[in-house]
Write a structure and sequence with these properties.
Protein name: Flavin reductase
Keywords: Oxidoreductase
Family: Belongs to the non-flavoprotein flavin reductase family.
GO molecular function: FMN binding; riboflavin reductase (NADPH) activity
CATH architecture: Roll
Number of domains: 1
Radius of gyration: 15 Å
Strand order of the largest sheet: 3-2-6-9-10-5-4
């Protein structure tokens, strides 16, 4: 058996990007999670995946809504990353967002946004593997510095030499 603390320490040694996945809840409010378990999957068809914890309050809403927006966070979005990493219903309190033409809640200042429809879901142990069919891509005019997650800390991607 793999010791969970060691497993977490080894996985924390791998730097990753940070995303927030959002959808609308049944009451019309924004629901979402912060996720570093995100990946491109396929170009044809265009598919991406993210992996929410089954224990997350947001997981059933994301699953049932069948559509969501994945925000690739900029370094300026630490407050948003921490807000959506927490539990509770008012994660977006004080955070600027608007509805897209596709009906997804979009956050301001992201490095990029991927709007998806749920394509498939698979079991991944204590997490779901949710695959989204890409329906819209959004890039800002100015490319902000992306956020990374490494050894339990969020920060700006340093300049690559």
């Amino acid at each position: 058996m793999i010791e969970p603390g060691l497993y977490k320490a080894v996985m924390a040694a791998f730097p990753s990007g940070v995303t927030i996945v959002t959808t609308l809840g049944p009451d019309g409010g924004i629901v979402g999670i912060t996720a570093s378990a995100f990946s491109a999957l396929s170009i044809d068809p265009a598919l991406v995946l993210f992996c929410p914890n089954y224990a997350s309050d947001s997981y059933p809403v994301l699953r049932d809504s069948k559509r969501f927006a994945i925000h690739l966070l900029s370094a300026d979005q630490q407050a948003e990353a921490y807000a959506f990493a927490g539990k509770g219903k008012d994660k977006a309190a004080g955070i600027e967002w608007h509805l897209s033409e596709r009906g997804n809640p979009l956050l301001s200042k992201a490095s990029a946004i991927i709007e998806c429809e749920l394509w498939r879901e698979y079991d991944g142990g204590d997490h779901a593997i949710m695959v989204g069919a890409v329906r819209n891509l959004i890039l800002p005019d100015e490319q902000p510095v992306p956020m990374i997650y490494h050894r339990g800390k969020l920060g700006a991607l340093p300049a690559i030499a």
